[in-house]
UniProtKB/TrEMBL annotation:
It is a multi-pass membrane protein. This is NADH-ubiquinone oxidoreductase chain 4L. The chain crosses the membrane at residues 6-21, 28-49, 55-80. One of its GO terms (molecular function) is NADH dehydrogenase (ubiquinone) activity. It catalyses: a ubiquinone + NADH + 5 H(+)(in) = a ubiquinol + NAD(+) + 4 H(+)(out). It comes from Opatrum sabulosum. Its main location: mitochondrion.
Amino acid sequence: MLMYEFVGLFMFVCGLIMFSMKRKHLLLMLLSLEFVVLSVYYLMFFYLSQVGNEYFFSMVFLTFSVCEGVLGLSILVSLIRTHGNDYFQSFNVLW
């Protein structure tokens, strides 16, 4: 069972490393954030299965993570429509 926790932590760390390495493209940053959310869900589901089989909070977490993903994709679509690409260096972030 300890191996499953290490797998979840390894997934989380890999997602954070990819988030910091792919900081130039918004789409790759969103994908790495979704991977981090997936690893947190994996760890939470594993923990809840060990404690008391109450999975209601995991459904709430999935609902919020789907809403977060939809908001990120809508920002990406509006950014591509206005600027033509998803590079952070092609437009001024402060304006």
